[in-house]
Amino acid sequence: MNTETIRREALSLPVQERAELAEQLLSSLDALSDNEIEHLWFQEAARRAAEMDQGVSKRISADAVRSQAQDLLK
Asked: CA-CA distance, 18 to 55, in Å (whole number)?
């Protein structure tokens, strides 16, 4: 069974069962080893770098991010 089939079947579950499944899946992430977590972060960094290279996402300067955050806190 592939993940697409599992996803479709999971989404067809009643709300309570979906919530329980979601909780179990999220809890399973807490059991990852440091090496597994590091590997996932490297994958995420590579994905984001590829998006920037492809022009899918854009770079924002730290000053712009800081300014936006300060505006949100006002």
From this structure: 36
